[in-house]
Specification:
about 800 residues; mainly alpha; 5-stranded mixed β-sheet; two-stranded antiparallel sheet; 37 helices; elongated
């Protein structure tokens, strides 16, 4: 078959275009590697569409490839211009490297955008932004550094090695910063930007990245200026002797570039793209310490008394860990307490998660209430780090890749409080409801990250706790050192898992355990969700609008989210909340009906949205309809707090005397001073236990503890009867109010320093609690009161 001249001409044009775009063998190989990698990413959950995650992966590889391409293309361009008037121009070589890199940059988006036919991309424009700001600019930067390296040496191989040296210097410097300093985020010219914790799904293009890329541009300007001064066109290489021949204008441009680059680098902490420990401590400003803990806190937000309480809390948890592990942790631990999650994200990179760095003996947390279990969890990471070798002081594969199931499972096992139920009970409920992934997969190299955080933390925590309880701390210490189950326990991991499964399957559960587990754990891991970053961004914006009272705007954003995931019932719940909050009874009813029609709604969520529907009916003046709804919900599975709310609302609506007085408070329509409003309500409803309870609860929540104790004692006495004896098993509302009043009174007694009575109250609350997890929590508070009594007797205070 003879080809036509026209076809030959067309093929020849394609070949010439291909050769001009990818002029070197290195460029063609790199194009193939990037194409193959892009295709491979299509099969990796979370990485199959254009966006932050795929951009990060492509930057890590592309930042090396395009540097090598830049070196080879620049050298080839310089050599090909031999004989031109005035010799080869250095700017031409740099532009040739950039042009080839732009051709390479087009490859991944073509593949990943095509894959959007199968993998939903909810924000194509934003995804392109992530790619350009991340991988795109990193590859262009690398190509220019590579071009400089290629022109520095006449042999292409030497230029490639010089670029690799540049790349290693930049990357190792940032790795050292991640290791030695608090931040977990990194902005690297060659590798893009790493946002920090995997579970933080609120990742945005912000001013920090813009400032960092401006700094990169200034660095390139220095590079280009130096190249213009050093380039010898006759010898086609850089020569230091050329500096004396440089023009004043070229020198002025170089000096200006150096000043700008140095200024941006010096301001990197204030601009937010590279922050160190000293900067964080200056911004937070507050510091308290004792012989075991250094507390660095935001003094503009956290008052001194609260800071002292936090220091006390840390000290108690650390001594708990000493007791549990049988030895005293020998070094002081620094805890950084940020005034808000936003501040923590800017300072060290974590927004919705808390961080421990065992190798530098520090933790980073948000401002949390006194007694928060997260302090126990994060301190456990540091304390257990004494059992693991460096450099990370956690069990790790090849010293650098943490065995996260052991790391997080151990901290969960130390903390142990799993909410209303224990970790064993939650694990058992997950298994019986068919929600539990295979524990062996969680224990695998990447299995922990592939699961939803709640599942992975709970199951691994239950497993480690079982090992500790049944085999003692000695083998676990060996396990934490190297992650080898068989060496530590004398049995392979599958056998230990089978042993744990047999135990878990025999754990008794309360009647509502399966429903509560489904509501809590029926979620996907971040890499298996649809558009997790875009949805997280929209949810944050909607929350800000709702807080500002702009309900219409917030609802519109939530409806946009629902369009992305129309079958996800939980994404519709905020719409129901907002409609109910503004009293749109008809709109709330329609939204609830649409939500329930999906058919995959767990019983706890179903009860909650129906409660919201009752709230909307109440606000619209449909009292009887709301009352009937509340009364039917009392038999539905839900948390104890939600059940108590439903019972209280039903009791208020059922009373013609209570509703006009307590109704506005429950619906958020009372005066701004809630305590003042409730004091008046108690006066208007003399002898009404429910009004008195609401006042006591409010006083306790606003830290008016002495008065709260007085009021809550009266509530408990009224519920127990005239003789003061608990008449349990009566009305469900009375029982719920008594348990909650006892808990609140115990808390307030603790805060006013009545530790003996607080301990007794917490222990009584533990006896009355219907759930094992709550029982453990109250017992922990009783132990805290006992610890503080002893400490005050021996030391006078905790400082």
């Amino acid at each position: 078959m003879v080809s036509s001249p026209r076809a030959d001409i067309g093929c020849d044009r394609v070949r010439r275009l291909f050769a001009s775009l990818l002029p070197t063998r290195t460029a063609r190989i790199s194009a193939g590697v990037l194409a193959a990698m892009s295709v491979a990413l299509c099969f990796v959950p979370g990485f199959g569409s254009l966006g932050y995650y795929s951009s990060l992966a492509l930057a890590l590889v592309g930042g090396v490839l395009t540097g090598l391409v830049g070196a080879s293309v620049a050298r080839r361009t310089a050599e090909s211009q031999t004989g031109t008037p005035g010799g080869p121009r250095v700017s031409t070589a740099f532009w040739a490297a950039a042009r080839t890199t732009l051709a390479l940059l087009a490859v991944p988006p073509l593949v990943l955008l095509f894959n959007s036919l199968w993998v939903k991309n909810c924000d194509p424009i934003g995804s392109v932004g992530f790619y350009v700001a991340g991988a795109g600019l990193s590859m262009l930067f690398a190509s220019q550094v590579g071009a400089f390296a290629g022109l520095w040496r006449r042999r292409t191989g030497q230029g490639l090695l010089l670029f690799v040296a540049f790349w290693l210097a930049f990357v190792l410097r940032d790795l050292a910063h991640l290791y030695l300093e608090p931040p977990i985020f990194a902005y690297n010219a060659f590798a893009g930007f790493f946002s920090g914790a995997v579970y933080d799904d609120l990742i945005e293009l912000d001013g920090r990245l813009a400032a960092f890329r401006l700094s990169n541009l200034a660095q390139l300007a220095v590079l280009w200026g130096a190249a213009a001064l050093l380039w010898d066109p006759a010898e086609r290489r850089f020569r230091l002797a050329r500096l004396s021949e440089g023009r004043v204008r070229t020198w002025a441009a170089l000096v200006a570039a150096v000043v700008v680059a140095a200024g941006l680098h010096g301001a990197r902490g204030h601009l937010g793209f590279e922050i160190d420990r000293a900067h964080i401590e200056r911004v937070l400003g507050g510091r308290l310490e004792n012989d075991r803990i250094v507390l660095v806190y935001d003094r503009d937000v956290i008052p001194p008394d609260e800071a002292r309480r936090l220091l006390e809390d840390h000290t108690y948890r650390l001594e708990q860990l000493d007791l549990a592990l049988g030895e005293r942790f020998p070094e002081r631990i620094t805890s950084y307490v940020y005034g808000s999650s936003r501040q923590k994200r800017r300072m060290m990179g974590a927004d919705r998660v808390y961080i421990a760095k065992p190798w530098v003996r520090e933790i980073h947390i948000n401002r949390v209430p006194y007694g928060a279990a997260v302090i126990h969890h994060e301190l456990a990471h540091v304390v257990l780090g004494a059992w693991a070798p460096g450099p990370l002081h956690v069990p790790a594969r090849m010293w650098l890749f943490p065995h996260m199931a052991i790391v997080e499972g151990a901290a969960e096992a130390m903390e142990w409080y799993g909410g209303s139920m224990t970790l064993h009970q939650w694990s058992a409920a997950m298994r019986r409801e068919g929600l539990a992934p295979d524990l062996a997969s969680i224990m695998g190299p990447d299995g922990f990250w592939s699961q939803a955080a709640g599942k992975a933390y709970t199951l691994s925590g239950s497993f480690i706790r079982y090992l500790l309880d049944t085999h003692g701390p000695a083998p676990f210490r060996a396990l934490y050192g190297d992650g080898d189950f068989e060496a530590a326990y004398g049995r392979p991991l599958p056998a230990l898992i089978a042993e744990w499964e047999a135990f878990i399957d025999g754990v008794p559960l309360p009647d509502d355990a399966l429903a509560l587990a489904r509501e809590r754990f029926d979620v996907k891991g971040i890499f298996h969700r649809t558009c997790p970053l875009e949805i997280a961004r929209l949810e944050a914006q909607a929350s800000a609008l709702a807080d500002a009272g702009e309900y219409d705007g917030a609802i519109a954003l939530h409806r946009q989210i629902v369009r992305f995931v129309p079958k996800d019932a939980r994404k519709r719940v905020p719409i129901v909340e907002l409609l109910a909050r503004r009293g749109d009874a008809d709109g709330t009813q329609r939204e609830v009906a649409e939500l329930l029609a999906l058919g995959n709604v767990d019983p706890v969520t179903r009860a909650y949205v129906r409660e919201l529907s009752g709230d909307a009916l109440w606000r619209a003046g449909k009292y009887l309809d709301a009352l009937k709804l509340y009364q039917t919900l009392a038999a539905e599975p839900q948390s104890e707090d939600r059940l108590r709310n439903v019972l209280v609302k039903a009791a208020v609506l059922a009373s013609g005397q209570r509703e006009p007085i307590l109704g506005p408070y429950l619906l958020g329509r009372g005066s701004r001073d809630a305590v003042e409003y409730l004091v008046a309500a108690v006066a208007d409803l003399p002898g009404d236990t429910l009004a008195l309870y609401l006042l006591g609860r409010r006083l306790s929540s606003e830290d008016v503890h002495a008065e709260a104790v007085r009021v809550l004692r009266a509530v408990i006495a009224a519920l127990d009867g005239a003789d003061g004896g608990p008449d349990r098993g009566r009305d469900p509302l009375d029982d719920a109010l008594r348990r909650e009043s006892l808990r609140l009174m115990a808390r307030s007694l603790f805060y006013v320093g009545e530790l003996e009575e607080a301990e007794r109250a917490f222990l009584e609350a533990a006896q009355l609690s219907p759930k094992d997890g709550q029982r453990l929590w109250y017992q922990d508070w009783a132990s805290r009161a006992q610890w503080l009594k002893k400490r005050l007797r021996t030391a006078g205070n905790f400082m």
